[in-house]
Amino acid sequence: MTDIITIIIAVGAIYLIAKITFKVLKVILMLAVIGLVIYILTNYGFLSGIL
C-alpha cells in the first residue's frame, strides 16, 4: 500500500515540477523572441534609422 502512495506522490510532484518548468520556459522563450525581434529591427529594420 505504501508503494502505491509513494508512486502517486511522485507522479504528483513530477506533474507540479513540469508545470512550473513549463511556465518558466515559456517566459524565457518569450523574452528570447522579443530580444531577437528587437535585435533584427535595430540592425535591419526601421529602428536602425532611429538609433
Low-pLDDT runs of 5+ residues are: none
In total, the number of domains comes to 1
- Beginning-to-end CA distance, first to last residue: 67 Å
**Helix proportion:** over 70%
Helix tally equals: 2
Total number of strands = 0
- Secondary-structure element order, N to C: HH
Radius of gyration: 21 Å
Shape: rod-shaped
Helix/sheet category: mainly alpha
Strand percentage, roughly? under 5%
Let me know the largest β-sheet.
none
The overall pLDDT, averaged over residues, is: 88
Summarize the structure in words.
The protein has one domain. 92% of the residues lie in helices and 0% in strands. It is built from 2 helices and no strands. The longest helix has 43 residues. The termini are far apart. Keywords: Membrane, Transmembrane, Transmembrane helix.
Would you spell out the secondary-structure blueprint of this structure?
Blueprint: H1 2-44, H2 47-50
Could you give a short description of this structure?
With 51 residues, this protein is mainly α. The protein has 2 helices and no strands.
